[in-house]
TrEMBL record:
It comes from Tengunoibacter tsumagoiensis. This is Glycosyltransferase RgtA/B/C/D-like domain-containing protein. It is a multi-pass membrane protein. Pathway: Glycolipid biosynthesis; glycosylphosphatidylinositol-anchor biosynthesis. Keywords: Endoplasmic reticulum, Glycosyltransferase, GPI-anchor biosynthesis, Membrane, Transferase, Transmembrane, Transmembrane helix. The keyword Manganese does not apply. One of its GO terms (molecular function) is GPI mannosyltransferase activity.
Length: 380
């Protein structure tokens, strides 16, 4: 695997996009917070902790103090890893450790994603896929102390192991993915899909059956471990589901959130309001990735299309019906639909104007949304 990865290209892309976000952190934070026409410096501690907002603050707080009742919406592996290293380094290190874990996980994700894409579409499409992922407008969540990149690392690792018929590795990656995010349990679908054509081999011998099917049980085990914790501590194994109501999320048909967003965008929210802009971003991300799902079904391996379809339905099942933006956080969730970036790369290669438009649009939006996050403005 190591010989097949163009480490030079991946490292350059990784380093340059990290430097881009570091530059935004320094320049934007200072320009927006320091007094104008003044030599007064900003608070250095605040400058270096500007990424500790929203869910990042929740993860670092869980890592330092443990779970409170409303925290159980956040799955445990990421804060556990932060705690494991930060307890050794000291209380000052939680944000730093979380950021390092997120960025190292992104680097691993880029390697797996390159290998997966190259296998089907060649090196050029693979490099474009990585580029679009790193420059996507909400890709700053891979830099901040969020668990998106850690989940994506285990998810792409699971897919790569399945393609190589490394069943135990696929199960292990799936186990950790399910411990990182609630959607990790959906990796049961690609595992079963890859196993089904080999059912004759699986059933031929007891050893073959155990070797191929038992690792699949590790995936729901990851979710089960957290469910057991919720049961023992909070009295319900599904507490991580029912707590969604605290954030205004409720079970609904998948099209309800989209319909409510369209209604709110055009009829309920005043033109130019902050709520309207957020609705537009989340709705555009949701509909855009549904389009990529449909467009890519002829080019992508069927397992990717099936998994993305189930993933999209899953994130639409719990819209934030009590919020002005029912599709809250979807512009972050779609980052995890990695095969859609393969489709985007195929479209970008076929239509150079699309590629040029994306290269003009993505970095600008990435900068704007990163600045919003840094300044603690409402961001998913």
């Amino acid at each position: 695997m190591i010989k097949k990865v163009p480490w030079g290209h991946i490292l350059w892309l990784f380093v340059l996009t990290r430097l881009f976000l570091v530059a935004i952190t320094y320049i934007a934070y200072i320009l927006f917070t320091a007094p104008k026409y003044s030599s007064t410096p900003v608070d250095v501690v605040a400058l270096f902790t500007t990424w500790n907002h929203w869910d990042a603050a929740n993860y670092t707080r869980i890592a330092e103090y443990g779970y409170l009742p409303f925290d159980i919406a956040f799955f445990p592996l990421y804060p556990f890893l932060i705690a494991a290293f930060s307890h050794l380094l000291g209380s000052w290190s939680y944000i730093l450790v979380g950021t390092i874990i997120s960025n190292l996980a992104l680097l691993g994700t880029l390697c797996f994603l390159y290998l997966l894409t190259t296998e089907h579409f060649g090196t050029e499409i693979a490099k474009r896929t990585l580029l679009y992922l790193c420059l996507f407008p909400t890709a700053f969540f891979f830099f901040a102390p969020y668990n998106e990149s850690l989940y994506l690392f285990f998810c792409t690792g699971c897919f790569y192991a399945l393609r190589r018929e490394r069943w135990w590795w696929a199960g292990i990656f799936g186990f950790f993915a399910a411990l990182t995010r609630n959607v990790g349990i959906l990796l049961l679908l690609p595992y079963f899909y890859e196993l089904w054509p080999r059912r004759a081999e699986v059933l031929a011998t007891a050893k073959g059956f155990i070797h191929r099917t038992f690792p699949m049980l590790l995936i729901p085990l990851g979710t089960g471990v957290f469910a057991l914790y919720c049961w023992r501590v909070f009295g319900s194994p599904l507490a991580f589901v029912t707590v969604q109501a605290h954030a205004g999320r409720h079970l609904a048909w998948p099209w309800v959130g989209v319909g409510r967003s369209l209604q709110s965008l055009f009829f309920l929210q005043p033109f130019g309001s902050s709520n309207q802009a957020h609705i537009l971003l989340n709705l555009a991300a949701t509909l855009g990735f549904i389009v990529l799902l449909i467009v890519g079904q002829r080019s992508l391996p069927r397992v990717y299309t099936l998994w993305m379809a189930v993933f999209m339905v899953y994130i639409l099942l719990y819209p934030a019906l009590e919020k002005p933006d029912p599709l809250l956080s979807n512009q972050r969730f779609v980052l995890e639909m990695f095969p859609a970036f393969m489709t985007l790369a195929l479209v970008g290669k076929r239509y150079p104007r699309v590629h040029n438009s994306l290269m003009a649009l993505f970095p600008g939006l990435l900068a704007i949304l990163s600045i919003m996050f840094l300044l603690n403005r409402w961001m998913v």
